[in-house]
Amino acid sequence: QYEYSLPPCSPPKPLALIVGNEAEGLSGEVLSLCDAVVHLPMRGHKNSLNVSVAFGIAAYEVVRRLVGCEE
């Protein structure tokens, strides 16, 4: 398992973003099937984001990097 922030360019293809719930995250079974685990950096007192917000941020960033790498 690799744990890191999103790479600066060329996210792997094909790509699946899998998100867990705020309380428990992903199960060990699901994590064992993942090639990489990515965390969103956070500041302040919150320990997690709403899952829909976290997915939106991650999806936006992946698309931004894919488009930016093609130019």
Word description of this protein:
The chain is built from two helices and two strands. It has helices at residues 28-33, 51-70, and strands spanning 3-4, 37-38. Strands 1-2 form a two-stranded parallel ribbon. β1 (3-4), α1 and β2 (37-38) form a beta-alpha-beta unit. The longest helix is centred in the last third of the chain and has 20 residues, at 51-70. It starts with a strand and ends with a helix. The mean pLDDT is 78.
Q: What is the topology?
A:
Elements: E1 3-4, H1 28-33, E2 37-38, H2 51-70
The number of helices is: 2
Strand order of the largest sheet: 1-2
- What can be said about the biggest beta sheet? 2 strands, parallel
**Oligomer class:** single chain
Uncertain regions spanning at least 5 consecutive residues: none
Shape: globular
Helix coverage percent: 25-40%
Average residue-wise pLDDT: 78
Question: Radius of gyration in whole Å, from Cα?
Answer: 13 Å
Number of strands: 2
Tell me the fraction of residues in β-strands, as a range: 5-15%
